[in-house]
């Protein structure tokens, strides 16, 4: 309560002080600032958010006026004095008139939005907030993603500048280092201007010019120049830090930085350069020719010159652009598809508009004229749409999607060029798309006002700094629509981005893999130590407790390490949205795609590999599963079909389900087809479920006519193969008339495999559990030979070829008797085999390791692992094993059942086998 | 002097002068071999080796070197010498070999490790020619004569060179 008293006391104090202050009296204003500071601290203690923000704004105005950025006129001080009375109201818990407060500040020239106080702003105030000459220029907040990228990158570059300058002091004149510093400033300048951070951009630009002189040997980087560059670097760092603060905590943390003094310094250093330097030496001339940074004023780039010459100069920047552009294009696609569902949703249009805008901005800056142009005209089209100058139509959606695809191709080509050099350059003719876009836009123009002329100018690529600025301002000039639309969208987009920044770092995948490996070893070592007979002999409760703790910690560590490689499945799922849309459109069906569990995480390495199988399954569900609307209505279903795409974790696996509510499989036709193909006999008792799953067999996939017969079978063996490669399983459940369900079961990670350890002679092998169907001890009567040497085993009424592991792998001293060993029935790509092993040793999760460069490609082996006793165990690769055994041919038969080698051992094995029967 | 030694070296082979340096010597039967100490990562005692099927006979298998799986070659078999029972002195020299995808570690099973010798250029002679005899000189850098004894200097990289890699795949 004392605090409350103190606050009101401080406010009264402030109210008196502000009345007596003379404009221009800096020390008095400084005192005010001090009081405001105190007040802020106390307001924080009392958790008075509104008051706190008011005081913060008040403080900011004072600071600005000290810096000479605001006219410290008597009127403004009157307004400040008025604002103090609002604060007094707020401190007394009365409803302060925040709107009036904001208006005051806007009048002063400092933009303040009532929305910042958590109070909805009335429309006219929202508009007022957009005042052009606002001291706090919030335009840079319009694109949080871009801003986040900027902050991260700028920090990186500034740090490198600092260390490079210090390196340069040790070896002055090193042109490599100078170039690196130059490039850093160049990049900072570029990205800052993309994000409307004009001051940062200007300062970086001036410094860049200075360094350009240095690297062209027209200026010696002396002590003074070095100091200036370092000072610039410091200032920029502080500015970027502040931007980050604003980004995370809100606009009221914005600090205004003066840059003119430093720019003046930079210019002084440049002016003082000795004019002795003649024409640059030849090596430098070549560099100068590369227009990485045309200094201000001479930055016009010839439109006709195409993309090729320029952008390769700045590979880092281009690489950043490529990655970013792909993300944006993906976002565009997703949002366009959303838009189809809700064509009038202005938020979604904004969400499409913004990525185009960003792509345009960055590509313009990088002199990627074609990309820039295409993105720009599309952006214009969208701008007209969101300003209600043009109605949304299916045509527009199609064109936007088409442009998105085309841009993707262009960006892909860019990335190819980065990797393979300029030779990979492909010429993209965008005129077709541009004219399509313009045609659509013109259609709208007939009814609405023509597009503002400012846009037209921006099409021509200007110098980097210029090309971005005018367009970034693009949305602003339409006063009635822009502010009210942008505000909510801005808030929504900023919210998720806030958590991201600072909370994530980029890590080399190799390092990550190294960590995961090391942790895997740690877990194994821990088990080894624990199982050491000397240790197990100690009956000490403390030791046991400590070991328990140790294993908990290692398990936790392993979990964390593994999770670092996981990414949400969202991206992959989102690609399906587009697929379903295109497919249903082509086949004249109406299909609703429902997705659940997009946040389910999977191993980064698996993302690409699950894409193909997913596509095939989706295609099946839409093409063959869901019927045409009229057919659906005929059987009493809604005309709109539904395909569900689900992902979730279950028992150490990731399950992906695709469920359609279509017609289901025609089991009878598959059955007859299977009989025709010789996959089963007409007399066989095979359940419908098993028959349905036959569509995964290779025999069912290739020929066209199968589609007529079964209504299914587009590359389903591809699905199975793909899933098995990931050591997963795929299954199909079909209910006639109700629909089909695909169930894909994938391991959480590719680094760890669940396996059964088997012994063959003295060797131990690991068989992936996913491949094992069952294991059993063969009876003599189920063992059949073909032509005297092809060995088969009758398992549940089907003949399974036998592979003797000892034969294929040439293992000595192993069990040769079919009836004495254990048969492990495995399945791979539809082929079933019975592996003869001596005994089953247990089930274990093992970390897969490469056998080292020279032993990588051994047929039949997927890799090695360290077993619990520290020895290396080999993991079987069944596909390779089967083909290796086929290549090797049948083993010479051991005739007639020989007496069992050692009965007791056999019995032990038998017990094991029974436990492990799957 | 040095140019003279280089001239003595056969064409396409490294200059003898470059061969001078420290070598780890080891024994295979009665013969003494040396490999550049710079290639040696460590020497470990014999441990259990997991045989890897479908590899040439001189690949004894793989071992667990502190969590890494590395292959082990038996040099006796590699050089076509008769094998003998492992003794207490049998050990594995872990070497690092260059490969396209960075360096790889590799174990070499030898009868025993002798010592580290500083061998000067004057003590080294180019490898002798055996004509059509079945002696693989591809991996031999040179012969060092020290105190009346001959040490055969080996190039680790060509022991598991490209040609051998192809053999692996064929096997």
Describe, in plain words, how this protein is organized in 3D.
The complex is a heterodimer of chains A (918) and B (171). By secondary structure, chain A is an alpha+beta fold. Chain A contains 34 helices and 18 strands. Chain A has 6 domains: 2-136, HPT domain (Four Helix Bundle (Hemerythrin (Met), subunit A)), CATH 1.20.120; 140-276, Up-down Bundle (Four Helix Bundle (Hemerythrin (Met), subunit A)), CATH 1.20.120; 309-475, Up-down Bundle (Four Helix Bundle (Hemerythrin (Met), subunit A)); 509-565, Helix Hairpins, CATH 1.10.287; 567-747, 2-Layer Sandwich (Heat Shock Protein 90); 752-916, OB fold (Dihydrolipoamide Acetyltransferase, E2P) (Beta Barrel), CATH 2.40.50.180. In chain A, strands 10-14-15-13-12-11 form a 6-stranded mixed beta sheet. Chain A has a 5-stranded mixed beta sheet with strand order 2-4-5-7-6. Chain A has a 5-stranded mixed beta sheet with strand order 16-8-9-18-17. In chain A, β4 (641-650) and β5 (653-660) form a beta hairpin. The longest helix of chain A has 27 residues, at 144-170. Chain B has 5 helices and 11 strands, in the order ααβββββαββββββαα. The longest helix of chain B has 9 residues, at 162-170. The chains are: A alpha+beta (918), B alpha+beta (171). At the A-B interface, α22, β17 and β18 of A face β4, β5, β7 and α5 of B.
